[in-house]
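Practice record 12: protein with thiamine diphosphate.
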Amino acid sequence: MAKAHKKKPSAPATPKTAMTAAQAAVEAMLAHGIDTVYALPGVQNDFLFEALFAAQAKAPGRLRVLHSRHEQGAAYMALGAALATGRPQAFAVVPGPGLLNAGAALLTAYSMNAPVLALVGEIPEADIGRHLGHLHEIRDQAGILARLVDYSARIRKPEQAPRLVAQAMRAMAFGRPGPAALQCAIDVWGKSGAVTMPPPQPARPPRLDETALRKAARLLGAAQSPMIVCGGGAQDASEEVTALAEMLQAPVLGYRRGRGVLSSRNPMSVTLPLAHELWPRTDVVLGIGTRMLMQFRQWGIDKGLKIVRIDADPQEPGRLHKPAAALIGDAGPILGRLLELVPAHNRARPSRKAEMEGRQAALRRLLEASIAPQLGWLAAIRDELPDDGIFVDEVTQVGFAARIAMPVYRPRTFLSPGYQDPLGWGYATALGAQDARRDLPVVSISGDGGFMFTATEMATAIRHRIPLTAIVFNDGAFGNVRRIQQERFGNRLIASDLANPDFMRFAESFGAAAERARTPDELRGALRRALARRDGPSLIEVPVGPFPSPWPYIFLPRVRGG
Ligand SMILES: Cc1ncc(C[n+]2csc(CCOP(=O)(O)OP(=O)(O)O)c2C)c(N)n1
Ligand SMILES: [Mg+2]
């Protein structure tokens, strides 16, 4: 966790003003650039909502509050907004059931290192920990939160609120980024005190380690066959990654969180199958903001592979295999310095363009021969979604294929939920992304199983006029589970068939536009109409049968290290 800096603030703190804890927290969040709160109200947070109302009343457009229909909706929306913008976002929920309902989204935000601030109510301050059975009481809420996020605190007095908000903001941005939580008791939110508002502290990035940088530059420059692996931590370093890939003639792997860092139009941009093909002869790998779990655990390593890591978290690079060089901090400035240092060490590198184009074409032929149905739907989506449009996948058949086969052209345009892969993330996260980026079209895909987890948030989309387009692939099943039962458990099908609503009538009953698309061409037309509609949500149901398995391209075998 980041420590408070002793450095003098750049602007003076405001004079003392009488404010409630809630007003102080809201003003402090606004001062730190949080101008939207995704929320579901309740009595413990009444004074918080009163403060949100007052903040809105001060000036139109200053603060937006978007209420959802279930706390997981509010929390996933904050996550989607954070992922789409790269900026911190907030959600507010009642304690106990409210917090637990938001739990899967908070867990996902943690796994994705996403800056999401949870504002969580509490029972009366004096009774916390006394087990008296107050409304929404839960044992050791602070302890539960401390397991879910790296920074959590309780506001006990109005005077503390600005400092705790500032600490939460700092914790979300520095070291390993990720969510933070602030609790406040029902009676404390409304208490008044004399509050000073310290100005936000300027960001102080960690100093670059020149020794490690020089070592990394030597290793990369000397590499015969380098590879760059991007994770979510590379999303804001697209220009630098593109330049380094060119300098090193190195393929750049993005699987899920790293997609779009290097445009798929560049033949050096690869997903799992081609990276796996090149893995055995890779002599130096540069991991940028990625855990590299799949490469190290599944593909294997040996002494012939030197590892260079760039990571915001000093603990991360050494977790599985000690790297030859670990560069700690934001990827952008570190790569910027590497771009200055590598040329002095770099070997002469003939262009690999033709070679990589050949490999891309061969993979394409292989995929066309094995997962053509998924590719057909994805081609329709890609054709209609502009380069800067945002695609949100989910753990569904077409999603698995998208992770390896859908072209992605820009950073932050392919949102995929990292290692939690929770059903229900898709629709609600996409709503948040679409709300935060109303200037761009957003398309979410879900299966009939996953969509129904958060489908009731369509009411939120209507209420707040969020123009999200959702595609639901309806196979009447938890299809992925069913295929595993068919293939690996002798077709003993259990708990994998689904009874569904009529999705078109379901959407229309909310007031959303709905279409059914039976072919990729029909999907193209439906998408064109949906994306043109900017005043509310659209749903496209795509009836599908079983899909061929994508797993041979995702669970790839060990090719190094025995
Ligand atoms: C929260 C959560 N619960 C359970 C699972 C396990 N799971 C993974 S895929 C899947 C089936 C998904 O069905 P559907 O959304 O219809 O997609 P399909 O495989 O049919 O395309 C299930 C139950 C999960 N990933 N997340
Ligand atoms: Mg399904």
